[in-house]
Amino acid sequence: MAITRLGPNQDITAAKIAGQINFKNLIINGDMSIAQRGTSATGKTTDGYYTLDRYQFAITSLGTWTFTQSTDVPSGQGFGYSQKADCTTADASPSASDRIFYRQKFEGQNLQYLKKGTSSAESLTLSFWVKSNKTGTYIVELFDHDNSRHISKSYTVSSASTWEKKTITIEGDTTGAFTNDNNLSLHVAWWLGAGSTYTSGTLGTSWGSQTNANRAVGQVNLADNTANEWYITGVQLEADTSASDFEFLPYDVNLQRCKRYFQILGDNKSGTANEPIVNASNYNGTYTTGAYLFNPVMRTAPTITSVSGTDYYGFVANSQSDNANSLSGTQTSNRSTQLFNNGDISGTAGQAGYWETKNNSAKVTADAEL
Prior knowledge:
Layout: H1 14-19, E1 40-48, E2 56-70, E3 82-89, E4 99-107, E5 124-132, E6 136-144, E7 149-157, E8 164-170, E9 184-194, E10 208-209, E11 229-239, H2 251-259, E12 262-267, E13 276-282, E14 287-293, E15 303-307, E16 313-317, E17 320-324, E18 328-330, E19 336-342, E20 352-357, E21 363-367
Antiparallel strand pairs: 1-2, 2-3, 2-4, 3-11, 4-9, 5-8, 5-11, 6-7, 6-9, 7-10, 12-21, 13-14, 13-20, 14-19, 15-21, 16-17, 16-20, 18-19
């Protein structure tokens, strides 16, 4: 297979991007295969990254939900998983500002070849498989955070509880360039319900300045009945005026891309405690720390969080373990952090060992989501 290399004076065009085999899809984890945080989350009523990597549910007072990495997929398409949203507490009469949508966010530096804000702005095509028992009109929106601009398109769930493929083309925006950095520039959102704040105008089917009333006009309310559920998989967003076949990436490649935004530093998914986390040493008798190097380098310095509880973590040294309730991060950059505990350990300064989990619920994570 010949490899095309662009010279220094050759522009990247939609045709050239479409001709490449790898990474034409702006979406990360479009096949819904990576779920580092877990495969199910129940009782959710607020914004959060709950199951599948890189996808956030944005919820304001519109129902209670269970989110699942499901094995219900369209037959014969090559997908192993989908995202399922299941309404468990209904809200048939949403207040004006209520809303729920499902979205993925993008760094500006990954969008420069779209040439947004110029006369050569590239069109995008979004394709995905969707299934719901609730038929009717649904809205997909692209939202430009750098310039407060958006565009919305509708699609129809025509047949109840049947997988359907949807393809939506979005014209390029000649106004407002994306900032060339690692911050949030764009998100794509699938609306599932909205109050009048977002539905009282005219659907904004062309790029324009942010007008909330035009964002989700016509959207059905998936939260109006506890029988309602919605599935999605095979999501692809590419620079072109038509959809190409879904780009399947190897699992390890997909996982590494997700780890730029979220990593598990230590946990017990296997259900067995005593998983080593990082080599460490006792600094002064009570302050015990070890340097953890992120692989891959993360988008920005992440937030380090540990699930805490009595004796959840252990410092193993000299054939014995001294227990701690939690671990924290300090001197954190996008490349590394120091995992430490100060006060739970009583040992000998200079003693070398390692941190490990001591409880099946112990978990340490690094979060650099947009």
